[in-house]
Design brief:
The structure holds 2 protein chains of 2 kinds. Chain A is an alpha+beta fold. Chain A has a single domain (about 1-195), classed as q2cbj1_9rhob like domain (Jelly Rolls), CATH 2.60.120. Chain A is built from 4 helices and 12 strands, in the order αβαββααβββββββββ. Chain A has helices spanning about 10-25, 40-50, 75-80, 85-95, and strands at about 30-35, 55-60, 65-70, 100, 105-110, 115, 125-130, 145, 150-155, 160-165, 170-175, 185-195. In chain A, a hairpin with a 3-residue loop joins strand 2 and strand 3. Chain B is of the alpha+beta class. Chain B has a single domain, classed as Jelly Rolls (Sandwich). In chain B, strands 1, 2, 3, 4, 5, 6, 7, 8, 9, 10 and 11 form an 11-stranded antiparallel sheet that branches. The two termini of chain B are about 20 Å apart. The chains are: A alpha+beta, B alpha+beta.
């Protein structure tokens, strides 16, 4: 699966430069790697995500989104997230190595959201997710991370972009409500977390 | 003062709250219509500020108790009067002290996600509807059925109807939301709480 990744992100010089950018980012260390997959791999993944069968995961005062049991190419995509190549990229950019947990493929469509709550606290480590979402503008659904001082990092869904965010137990996050301008469009995501003992 | 501001049928009559999914009542044609039209006209002269968080997106005025507008001041004085609070207290079976009141506008894509309103000394939540729209336009006040005080599914929906007053008791069961406004025009209300 590693051959899906844009070879530009394999270059050690590039990774060193990305590490500097990640460390400099305020209020929360983070980076977005655009054109992360090769174009044909991205389109193949988008097609599979669109075809997958989802079920709604909803606790009204906490969250509403959709999740798929991975099959076929989606299993390959999950394996890509766990691959040595991707883990190497994450380690080189963030300096963090630890236990990796992967999410099932998800989407946020019209009327989906998450609300900040104490039941789903973030941990020390990083969150990483690949947006597989074409043409997403002015419809909500962005991911917002907040520091304890309420400074915000907002990640706007951008097609074929891997976002990496440093988190701590004090970081809070939510996905903004997706409004009716989304129509039938959906924000597809695959990704996971790496936990570390370092805060 | 009651006779001057509200429909005679509500000044003395016994009014029973609906029990499900939690105690509430929608009182239609509640205010003197001529006065309420004037209140709406003057309310729209107030400054509405964007309010946005994980839970909501709408526009809201400052607390109307600080309004300098004579019409709004008069409305607030009535709504905060001992006589009116006793009337609402009788309908809701609670003893009420002070009130909060703010003008609210939901623009297109405005929403309020599910929550129970339990903050501080809030006893009775209220909404005064100043605009009217159909259920297809969104902006509906929706009440959740609960199980073990957790919201499960929407059990009741109310489309905004001009000159209606919604009252509901704030409790562990009072989960509600306002569905997204999909109409281009604004949903306009005055809302807040009677505190105990």
């Amino acid at each position: 699966m590693a051959e899906w990744i844009n070879p530009a992100y394999m270059n050690s010089g590039t990774l060193k430069e990305l590490r500097k950018q990640f460390e400099k980012q305020k209020p929360i260390k983070s980076i977005q790697l655009q054109s992360f997959l090769k174009e044909d791999s991205f389109l193949k993944l988008l097609d599979e995500l669109r075809k997958a069968r989802y079920k709604q995961i909803c606790t009204p005062d906490l969250f509403s989104y959709h999740e798929a049991e991975p099959k076929g190419i989606l299993i390959d995509a999950i394996m890509l997230m766990a691959s040595q190549r991707l883990q190497h990229i994450l380690k080189e950019i963030t300096g963090i190595r630890g236990k990796t947990t992967l999410y099932k493929p998800q989407y946020f469509g019209w009327k989906d959201y998450t609300i900040m709550n104490d039941m789903q606290k973030l941990q020390n480590g990083i969150v990483f997710f690949l947006d597989v979402t074409p043409h997403w503008e002015d419809v909500g659904g962005e991911t917002v991370y907040l520091t304890p001082k309420q400074e915000a990092l907002t990640i706007y869904p951008t097609a074929n972009t891997l976002s990496i965010v440093r988190t701590s137990k004090k970081t809070r996050m939510f996905v903004k409500y997706v409004n009716n301008y989304a129509g039938k469009n959906k924000r597809y995501l695959i990704g996971g977390t790496i936990l570390t003992n370092r805060s | 003062m009651l006779n001057e501001w509200i429909n005679k049928k509500y000044t003395n009559a016994q009014i029973k709250l609906k029990a499900k999914p939690f105690p509430h009542i929608l009182l239609t044609n509640f205010f003197n219509e001529k006065k309420l039209i004037e209140v709406k006209k003057e309310l729209l002269k107030e400054t509405f500020y964007d309010k946005e968080s994980d839970l909501f997106f709408f526009k809201e005025t400052n607390d109307l108790k600080s309004s300098k507008n004579p019409v709004i001041k008069e409305w607030f004085s009535f709504f905060n009067s001992k006589e009116f609070k006793e009337r609402i207290g009788k309908i809701t079976g609670t003893k009420l002290k002070k009130i909060d009141a703010a003008g609210m506008q939901y623009p297109e894509t405005g929403y309020l996600l599910p929550h129970d309103d339990r903050v501080s000394t809030r006893k009775v939540a209220y909404v005064v509807y100043l605009s009217e729209q159909s259920k297809e336009d969104g902006g509906m006040l929706e009440f959740f059925e609960t199980k073990n005080n957790r919201p499960m599914r929407v059990a009741k929906r109310f489309a905004p109807k001009f000159n209606s007053l919604m009252l509901f008791l704030v409790s562990k069961k009072s989960y509600h939301q306002v569905s997204e406004q999909v109409k281009h025009e604004q949903r306009i209300t005055i809302g807040g709480w009677f505190h105990g």
